[in-house]
Amino acid sequence: MNTVLAGNPPAPSILSRTAIAAGGENRAEFAAAGASAKNDRMSVPANAMVSFEAVSKRFPANRSSAEVVALDAIELDVPRGSVTGIIGRSGAGKSTLIRLVNGLEKPSSGRVIVDGVDVAALGEDRLRDVRRSIGMVFQHFNLLSSRTAYQNIALPLEIAGVDRRVIEARVTPLLGLVGLTDKRDRYPSELSGGQKQRVGIARALATQPKLLLSDEATSALDPETTRSILALLKQINTELGLTVLLITHEMEVVKTVADQVAVIDRGAIVERGTTFDILSAPKHETTRALLAGLPSLRLPAFLAEQLRPEPSAGSRAVLRISFAGDSATQPILSRLGQVTGVEVNILAGAIDEIGGRPFGSLVVSIAGESKTLAKAEKHLAGQGLQTEVLGHVA
Description:
13 helices, Rossmann fold, about 35% helix, Alpha-Beta Plaits, 14 strands
């Protein structure tokens, strides 16, 4: 049975109330395709834009390699109007998962349902119509060097045979949306990496998609540009009510823009939930490893070098205390010192914010025997705090 990641309802579409409405015939084409495919429509949760139902993908063995299980029994629903992040290490199956959504790959078993339609069951003609409702943003932009920003955005509409006046009415406001009105006639060689990605995003929106797929869209960008692109994606989600499904290996990306997250490892979903819940209380070791890259959870190098797995005479236990919400404002350490009767030293710490709620961690050291450590952990757990013993230092 699928686990639904709860999301927000779609917001009203600003562009649909402006000149882009001139392209309504494209929506009519997709509606017609959906009507003709009514026998392929599946019963899925009403708020799900994408549903993965027991989806597996295997690449058969050949002369040089054994069979590869890229995805194994994936069960996941992506709510309409949400930003859902799929995060995992390289080779975890993220790219394969997203390629199933737009029909570039077919599942070996199970079904991928997009807006009520089983994508793998469609013929090429009907699949082409469905793809027009799915925008794709790539890591390396994939712009044509011989075409201007305007012309690159217009390309999918030209291929679809849309009237030139409709193209103008649709592309011009998109240039404004992504902040490139003054770059209309510039070629890719004259644009920065962030500007190229903005062209790629506008191009993905040109066909008025219901779903936007983002494939490591910020991996090739510097941190400042990454933040601006993520802010743009969130703006598009909010203003257009567009469902966004993004894959990434960076937890910072998920923290910044996603409403919910699913963690994938070795082809399986190992953890899922709201972004706040997953980041503040990770259950799976893969999630914890990915979280270690966040600034608020990164262990200082000088401390990591001193850590030892087992205690020794006179050593101090090193704990990470994760806090969220109301607990962020409580006098945690003073109470901990009172309970344990020993000094608590702060070694590192940071506070961040997820969805307007405070979240962070403190790395502290505590002297004493194992009983003292157990007492400290019990007290912190009673306060609703997550603790992790990182090791011991002399």
